[in-house]
Amino acid sequence: MLSRVADNLYWFSRYIRRAENTARLVGVGSQLQLDLPRSVRFTWRPMIDTVGAGEVFESLHPDAGGDVGDAEVSRFLLLDPLNPSSLRSSVDGAREILRGIRDSLPQEVWEAVNDLHLYIEGNGERAITRRYRIEFISRIADGCLKVSGLLTANVSRDIGFNFMRLGTAIEQADMTTRIIDAGASGLITPRQEEDREAFSNMQWMAVLRSLAAYQMYRRNVRQRVTGEHALRFLLQNGDFPRSVVFCLSRAQRVLPGMPPRPAVDRHFNRVVGITRNADPAWLAAHNPAKFMDEVQVQLGDLHNAIVQGYFYS
């Protein structure tokens, strides 16, 4: 397979999974806004920093400051074409890649991605309002899952499919840590200190729901939602498909069927070891954001090793 085609397949799968999880990230805030009493202060700005787009946002909105509303943040994360990690940019990136590799994937995949593009163009502005935002997020998540289902059901298990699996797994692991980061990064400021634990548990419940993990959490953990239990489930559970360990372990199983690249193996082992050895109880008692940043840096190094090993070697 040409390295250009492999690179495109890898990034196509990453863009699709990024679009889905960007919608889910906004869903964390939207779900919390619906559940919280109006007396509780809710801050949207940490979501922008969570996806690493703080500098882009400040350059586009120099007078916004830290107290930005849900409409501004939702527009930036969902629709802004100048934000390279926005939902619209991700879908457009996947669509543009697909134009060049349409012979490599079934026609139904192109139709599903094009439907997503047209839906965003026609209904994106409605998503800025609270009334229609959850509906929009659900429709986007369903559309992205449709693309993933078509790829899983209709694409031959060759080396091209392996590159898509790599991209999907790494992107999902990265976005899971970012959604955890968003849920734990001070979105809620209670008026009274004794309310902090209750509202913190509500944040973790919103994180689980945004990752479609709440029902599986209840089935596997069988305890009330706390930061410790939610972190252990989303980071280390070996059976839940969106957990970081599950994603990375699944990606590791792809490597024996690909040309050997020792640097890629080393980076996989490093990030899997860091995640498996994390102490969820300690993370929950402190600020998990620093650990999530560390995992994201390691995932970035893993991505660079894949690029250097397979696409530019």
Beta-strand content: under 5%
Number of strands: 2
Q: What profile does the largest beta sheet have?
A: 2 strands, antiparallel
- The low-confidence runs, each spanning 5 or more residues with pLDDT under 50, are none
SSE class: mainly alpha
Q: Count the helices. How many?
A: 15
Strand order of the largest sheet: 1-2
Number of domains: 1
Oligomer: single chain
Mean pLDDT: 89
Distance between the termini: 13 Å
Describe the structure.
The chain contains 15 helices and two strands. It is globular, with a radius of gyration of 19 Å. The chain is 71% helix and 1% strand. It has one domain (3-311). Helix 6 (107-123) runs antiparallel to helix 7 and helix 13 runs antiparallel to helix 15 (289-311). The mean pLDDT is 89. The protein has helices at 3-35, 45-50, 54-60, 70-78, 87-100, 107-123, 130-154, 159-183, 196-210, 214-220, 227-236, 244-252, 262-276, 280-285, 289-311, and strands at 41-42, 188-189. Strands 1-2 form a two-stranded antiparallel sheet. The chain starts with a helix and ends with a helix. The chain is mainly α.
Which characteristics define this entry?
single chain, 313 residues, mainly alpha, two-stranded antiparallel ribbon, 15 helices, 1% strand, globular, ATP-dep_Glu-Cys_Ligase-2
Please specify the SSE layout and strand pairing:
Layout lengths: L2 H33 L5 E2 L2 H6 L3 H7 L9 H9 L8 H14 L6 H17 L6 H25 L4 H25 L4 E2 L6 H15 L3 H7 L6 H10 L7 H9 L9 H15 L3 H6 L3 H23 L2
Antiparallel strand pairs: 1-2
Concise overview:
The protein is an all-alpha fold and 313 residues long. It contains 15 helices and two strands. The protein has one domain (3-311).
